[in-house]
Amino acid sequence: MLRERILYLRSMLMLLDVAALTLSFIAAYLVTPLVRYVLIGGEHWWALQPFGPYLMVLAAVIPLWLLLYEKNRLYKGVEEKDALGLLTQCVIVNAIGLLLLSFPLFFGKMQFVSRLLIFHFVGFNTVSLFLTRIIFREEVERARTSEEQRENVLILGSRERARKAIRYFKKAKDHFRVLGCAELDASAVGECVEGTDVSVISTVGKLGEVVKRHAVDRVVVAIPTSCLRDFGELMTRMEMLGLNVDVLPERAILEFEAGETVWKTSLDGSGGLPALAFRWVEYEAGELVVKRLIDLAGSIVLLILLSPLFAVIAALIKYTSPGPVFYKSMRLGKGRKVFDCYKFRTMVADADERKQGLRHLNEKQGPFFKIADDPRLTRVGKFLRKYSLDELPQLWNVLKGDMSLVGPRPHPLDDFEQYSPDHIRRLKVTPGLTSLWAVEARSDPSFERNMELDLHYIRNWSLGLDMSILFRTVGAVLRGEGQ
């Protein structure tokens, strides 16, 4: 959650640094002749030297400066520094870079490189480095205070061990939000846990109902396992609900309180509370950053390349049926975040109002709703659906971060209302423009088959699997397998 977001921001910061170094160098290249004209004089202030030789200098400058940023902690710990400290560090880093660069330039007799240009570059880059760090610091602060970045925690138990867990999670409020507690005894429901502002909101036996009502990310078992009638069955149930589980062993807690523990801590940012961690699924943060960068690059390139096709489709929709060009519907994303999902309109303008009257014709099973020969489809709409062209505006959702190029397809809110608690697991990841289900079983009417493929994708996700699905999607689109 928050850790993943900060890692993503740091990766984007490195790309921004490459762009800032390049732009600072180009700005220095353009400004230097003007400054030389003002200081020295001459006939033409706009006369520029050939840029080719400077490319070699730029190729050396970028990795050198990035290394200096890394060594001087301008990627990690930036959010903890004040503005004056950041500015001082930016000046020092660029001064060190200038010193290192001066040896080959000033003493290596590289006469083709303007010394004045290098000084201008260092000045421009100091300003850009400071500004990017200020922006990064504000983005990190925004992420820390965002409700979406916090992990929702449900604690099983309400006695001493649970109270200790509550205190630790409360200390790490930037990372976690304690939703409440669940107890074995139904009579405890509604009571406030002693010494805290956290309430008992359910019983252990009704975890499914809690998961359906709340976006639970992690369950902390603070009840002695000896008090649970069947701990194995409880763990199986939590796995079926897609929950990450931390079990607080009694002896580990006692040792931890006494300062004698040798247990490894596994609750990042929670204050170091020792626990046995059971993860339903866990990805490498670095791979998730790469996935997001692929999403950004892919959506930007495709939106630009397909813009003429967008214009043609928009004209056809507008001139063949009354109503807007785009259709916007509320969908559920990762962590139940509701977002506006965009498509080209393929139906008549009042399609949503007519949906309930057509429920009896539904050809899918479970929360799905789909009719092959839907009477609401327009002529252009049938063609767009056949070749999946109606989905193309979702590239904008990918660019915004609501969706990914690959992931479980997002469902409408009324379909979510029919979910069973077990189905919530598919909301643990970012939905996608295409999915494993879309290339393997799109015509299969079973929602359970859809769930099976979505869960297989979530459990076995890799960048290679994403690439495979994308290539297979191109083939499916060209064959016109859409519905």
Your description of this structure?
It is a single chain. The longest helix has 39 residues, at 2-40. Helix content is 51%, strand content 10%. Residues 260-265 and 267-271 have low confidence and may be disordered. The protein has a 6-stranded mixed β-sheet with strand order 3-2-1-4-5-6, sandwiched between helices. The protein has a two-stranded antiparallel ribbon with strand order 7-8. Helix 14 (413-416) links the parallel strand 9 and strand 10 (432-434). It starts with a helix and ends in a 5-residue tail after the last helix. The chain has 3 domains: 2-145, no CATH class; 150-278, NAD(P)-binding Rossmann-like Domain (Rossmann fold), CATH 3.40.50; 285-478, no CATH class. The chain is built from 17 helices and 10 strands. Helix 2 (52-71) crosses helix 3 (83-106), helix 3 packs antiparallel against helix 4 (115-145) and helix 9 (285-305) crosses helix 13. The chain has helices at residues 2-40, 52-71, 83-106, 115-145, 160-171, 207-213, 231-240, 250-258, 285-305, 307-320, 351-355, 379-386, 394-400, 413-416, 436-440, 447-459, 463-478; strands spanning 151-156, 176-183, 200-203, 218-221, 244-247, 276-278, 326-332, 338-344, 404-406, 432-434. The chain has 483 residues and is an alpha/beta fold.
Order of helices and strands: HHHHEHEEHEHEHEHHEEHHHEHEHHH
**Which term fits the overall shape?**
flat
Number of DSSP E strands? 10
Total count of domains: 3
Total DSSP helices: 17
Helix and strand composition category: alpha/beta
Segments where pLDDT lies below 50 for 5+ residues? 260-265, 267-271
Terminal CA distance reads 35 Å
Strand content: 5-15%
Order of strands in the sheet with the most strands? 3-2-1-4-5-6
The major sheet is characterized as:
6 strands, mixed
Q: Helical proportion?
A: 40-55%
Round the Cα radius of gyration to an integer and report it: 28 Å
Name the average pLDDT. 82
